[in-house]
Write a structure and sequence with these properties.
The longest helix is centred in the N-terminal third of the chain and has 26 residues, at 5-30. By secondary structure, this protein is an alpha/beta fold. The chain has seven helices and eleven strands. 35% of the residues lie in helices and 22% in strands. It folds into two domains: 5-138, Fructose-1,6-Bisphosphatase, Chain A, domain 1 (2-Layer Sandwich), CATH 3.30.540.10; 155-262, D-Maltodextrin-Binding Protein, domain 2 (3-Layer(aba) Sandwich). The termini are far apart. A six-stranded mixed sheet has the order 1-2-3-4-5-6, sandwiched between helices.
Length: 265
């Protein structure tokens, strides 16, 4: 146990993300389901678990989850847990792709404080058996701050299903290449792990898609912002938060400028 409340919250986030991931792996292996049916069951089982555990461990805190009705009293709360029970439901449900079952899906658990912003975050990659937090990586050795470049050509991870229109322009400006990938958490952690140098996205995301990955990435010394360079703000009345940059800090200025030029801003 620890007397430091932030450490206690971080340990809780890591524990819940990890255990929800283990539950999802078990459901995936034993349910006999696949595709959308598996995704729906996984979403429900993981959300039920996270909601029950947070209610027991932090009964005075609010919770914002992709899979539960939005309790608007969170807007007056000083502490709000922002969770995505299965980030990348389609990838989670894919068991028979070209390389077998997909691994690029995640579980997100983050805590937002009204006065302090993102307090803690944990991203579990259950199919890889690893959970990352805003302090240190669990299971595998810690990666430290801003890992070295993966190679001479920067890699820019983007959505495999809906890459932003400016994605190729960003890759060209960096002299790099695009790397399509599944969930938002998997893409952000690819930058944390040094498998990519930047992650850019526009359209179709909400607060739960980025809160935990951003908490982890910022703790590793990476740049995180909206595509115009403005900060990411959570626990808003409208939970739609459609765009995101996670990158090595020395790339941020060029990425933001390229996106602005591509959009005519």
């Amino acid at each position: 146990m620890t007397d430091d409340p932030r450490i206690a919250d971080r340990l809780l986030a890591v524990d819940l993300a990890t255990r929800a991931g283990e539950l999802l792996v078990e459901v995936r292996a034993t349910s006999g389901l696949s595709g959308r049916e598996l995704g729906d069951v996984g979403d429900r089982r993981s959300d039920d678990f996270l909601q029950a555990e947070l209610a027991a461990a932090r009964p005075d805190d609010s919770v914002l989850s992709e899979e539960s009705a939005d309790d608007r009293t969170r807007l007056d709360a000083t502490r709000v847990w922002i969770v995505d029970p299965v980030d990348g439901t389609r990838e989670y449900g894919t068991l028979d792709g070209p390389q077998g079952a997909r691994t690029d899906w995640a579980v997100h658990v983050a805590l937002w404080g009204t006065n302090d912003g993102l307090l803690v975050g944990a991203v579990a990659l259950p199919a890889l058996g690893v959970t990352y937090s805003d302090d240190a990586e669990v299971v595998e050795p810690a990666v430290g701050l801003a890992p070295p470049r993966t190679d001479e050509r920067p890699r820019v991870v983007v959505s495999g299903s809906r890459p932003p229109e400016f994605a190729q322009a960003v890759a060209d400006a960096l002299g790099g290449e695009l790397l399509p990938m599944g969930s938002a958490g998997a893409k952000a952690i690819a930058v944390v792990r040094g498998e990519a140098d930047a992650y850019v996205h526009a359209g179709g995301q909400y607060e739960w898609d980025s809160a935990a990955p951003v908490a982890v990435a910022q703790a590793k010394g990476l740049w995180c912002s909206r595509i115009d360079g403005s900060p990411l703000i959570y626990n808003q009345s409208d939970t739609y938060l459609p765009d995101l940059i996670v990158c090595r800090p020395e790339l941020a200025e060029k990425i933001i400028a390229t996106i602005g030029a591509s959009s005519g801003a």
